[in-house]
Amino acid sequence: MTLEEARRILGLSADENPLEHLAEFKAARDRIADLVRTAPNETIALRYQDGLVEFDRALAALREEMSREDPEETRRKSWMAAALGLPSETTADVASKLPVVTTAPLAPAAPPAEDLDEEEPVRSGSGARVFAWFLVLAVALGGGGFLWQKMKEHEQLRIQERLTFLETLGAKMIDARQWPEADLAYAEIEQLKPGARSAQIGRRSIEAGMEEERRQFVGYWSGEAIAAFDLGRTDDAANAARKVLEKYPNETEISELLKKIEQARSTQAREAMVVTITAAIQKRRWDEAENRAKELAKAFPGDPEGNVLLAEIKAGRDKEQRDRNRAHELFLAAKVRDLGQFDRDALEWLREAAALAPEDPEIAALYQKMASYTRTLQVPADYATVSEAVAASRDRDRIVVAEGTWEGPVIIDKAITLEGAGRDKTIIEVAAETSTAATFGRHAGGARVSGITFRHRGFDSGPNRFSVLLVRGAEVTLSDCRVADSAGHGLAAVEAGRVVATRCLFENNGWDGVAVRGAGSRIEFTDCESTGNFGHGYDIWDGGSAAIHGSIARDNSGNGILIDTTAEDVVLGENELRGNREYGIVASSAASGRIHGNRCHENLLGGMAVRFAATRLTFDNNVLEKNFGPGLALEQGLDSAAFASNQATGNEGGKNTVLNADFSSGE
Fold first, then answer.
1. What is the mean pLDDT of residues 233-243?
2. Rounded Cα gap, residues 44 and 504, in angstroms
3. What's the pTM value of the predicted model, to 2 decimals?
């Protein structure tokens, strides 16, 4: 090692005297030796050992150089020392005072430092210089306690920076409701700094946030489910409830709600199947009806409605066969009467036969032949409109209206026959706020109408609404007609108007399906249906009377049949009253008559209600079952023994027969 390298390692300039820094050299060497002994591991100790060896080599080089100093320089220094009154020292003497160069061991003992104990104490500021040399040496050698400490400090700084980043990240993930990411951030914080308060607070924030999110999510979707369920949108309700349970399967209230929704859906599916089957029965599509009824029985085992519908289908088939037989009998009777001239009775027999067996070609052909014996007006072949044909007609004329929709109103005051192509094919309509679609006046006695739909277009909510079909003081026969969508009543028989109807449908009218009002007004209905009306199905009141047999009143907002009259001979027999929002039958008053063999079921307020003013009616063999109110409700003063033959079973809450009912209080 050269002198320049030694001086550089020891921190000496070219003109500095090594003797002036002996104490500093000793202190530095002791410090390095201590580092060797106290190093945390062998690797660092070896690195310190290398530094100590380098330090000793520098001292040895300096000692050797000083021992070779020339005589002239020695004499000069001696003379200067003498001049200053100092002891005279040779270069060798100075060199001998430098620490002895040895190889520093890894043992705890400090290496020797000859003569250093005899030197003067370290001068002011020398400690700082020694420490500076030590730093330079330690950094240059890449090791040492100082470097190790610095590394520890750097690691702590890095950890603190990571903690700060993780705390910020955790807070941002909580704000973004990304709970797993936030949890990972706080888990790493706990790893880096066990028991960290920021991690504890963060975890509580996650729990609180997740609970708030749960409440919001459950609250919103459960609200959607309940609202949809209340509106009958069971599919939407079920989807909303499942959203909650997919994310939070332990929400018991939603689980219970979903059960109710599924039950309601099942009920709706059942009701839809029943409606489909009923529609097929009404249209006499027996094979379709039977197949659907079997599907109902399979989907809902034990449901009694399936058996009821199958029985109804069988009864319908049997009736259709009877109708065919009856149609054939009427056909034969009319054929005998065919003498090539108009015969009102024979023509009426054939008209009935054609209605009972519409697919029979022989009946249809004979009817056309015998109908031609009277004058026939064709719409639109002969007249452009129904009104024009009616205006041109005479009593006993026949007006045949082709398929299509025809504008009303039509006013008939003649004994004519009005025939359509079928109630689903020929339609006469008028704007609801304008008038009735058809009116039969006093001189229309004997008029006959078949195969036509009469309806309103639009709706009028005023207090004086028009009916679709009005019969005033005349006797009219309807067969296979439809009366629908009226702003007011579907059919109104007033002022002693009389209507005989067969196989007619009265539906979706703004007031009653059929209203009979006033002394002398009467209806005689067979195989008819009144459904979905905003009022009652059939309303017999204010002196009107009725005979209704084998007919249906269902799904009306009022009662199926309401009797509130002073007339005699009111007869209701073998009718079906179901699904009405009030009672199946309400008998408020009547002068005489009979209510027998009717079936009232699934009505909201009850099966049948009888008031004291109706005691002149007789009630026998009526079946009152499965209503959502009492099966039979009798007003105060009525003797229950007079109703013993009626059967009331399975009604809501076991209220099969309720005595002493107070209807004046709204019960």
1. 89
2. 111
3. 0.59
